[in-house]
Design brief:
Length: 75
């Protein structure tokens, strides 16, 4: 069993997922980001909200939660 904490997840880590997506305007939700970065869903959601606040991402509430995407004009 390895000791220690997992490295912190940064907004740059989250944004990199959007930059590397085949369709750079593809929407993601917090659970998808959480799975891709192996971090807690709340961490993913907080980083996504930070990126939305900084205008790097846009978001929309949907029935099952919220989706985030990179504005296509920036792609």
């Amino acid at each position: 069993m390895s000791g220690g904490r997992k490295p912190r997840t940064s907004t740059d880590d989250v944004l990199q997922i959007f930059l590397e997506a085949e369709d750079r305007c593809e929407p993601f939700d917090a659970p998808e980001i959480s799975d891709l970065l192996s971090c807690h869903r709340n961490t993913a959601r907080n980083k996504l909200e930070d990126l939305t606040f900084m205008c790097d991402l846009e978001s929309k509430k949907i029935a099952s939660g919220k989706v985030y995407w990179r504005p296509c004009e920036q792609a």
